[in-house]
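User: Batch of two.

Assistant: Item 1 of 2:
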Amino acid sequence: MRTRVKICGITRRQDAEFAVEMGADALGLVFYEPSPRAVTIAQAHEIIVALPPFVSIVALFVDAKADYVKACMAALPINILQFHGNESVEYCEQFNYPYMKALRMRDGFDLKEATRQYKSASALLLDSYQPGVPGGTGQVFDWSLVSNINLPVILAGGLNADNVAQAIKQVEPYAVDVSGGVELSKGIKAQDKVRKFMQEVVNV
């Protein structure tokens, strides 16, 4: 089974459509206002309203108020929630909906303990650690920090067409997550980079 691909930080309908055309399995929409890739509920609806079936829509939140998460869920055909801040297990579980928890990897981080803590998650997304930045750093972390766990691993952090094949070979994740690595500028995807990234994943 080939590694799945999530392209995150989609802000334009044409980028969503091209990502799907190239074979992306999931699209990430950022509902975190400080992010340069943030979208509103109305913008998200415009982006995904005409997408074909069998493409997962992932809604990313960072320490959001529960009411806002629920409003997004009510308005949009979201398949899975992604919590990218300091959300507790209790917070993540309150929505009674599939979720994945992002964890920022660094020396001394106990991945196995985090896995036990978030055992109700559908997957764990492993990203790079940078103080004060919840994600989208464009930095690669030390992949040797990833240990075998009993939840699907989604590998993120600084991935691009030049390193994704090696990342897949070394970590063997369920999926890879890319944002800045396929962009012209923040939130604007580059078709040539998306195409090359997908080719690298498929050819591993």
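Item 2 of 2:
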Amino acid sequence: MQGKIIERHPTEEFDYQRLAETCFISQPTVFLRRHVFEEVGPLDTSLHYCLDYEYWMRIGKRFKIGYIPEVLAATRFHGAAKTVSNRKVAQEEVLMIVRRRYSSVPLRTIYFYSYMNLLEKLMPHVQGVYPM
């Protein structure tokens, strides 16, 4: 779309409990202090899809997170992006890390996972609609 903004990433004021429902932090806009990194540690490289999301959970549990409403970065989503091309597996990782960090998974997160499963199963069978 040649630099045209199609849609804004849904960001909002930080709320630790709300973070269990959705990742509303846009990774390329994050700035953190060195002492935060030193206390929380590095990214969990055993994760494949949600390294940043899990990191925000660890940071948010210990530190106050600020919010700037202005657009600070842009992201390009495309069919080959790993979180787009492997949505079901990515959502399974989301469920795992939310359960690990919060002890339970909010219904909204479970509903989205169920939706992704149904979409994957039904899309190839819908006439006139091509698999994503």
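The chain is about 45% helix and 0% strand.
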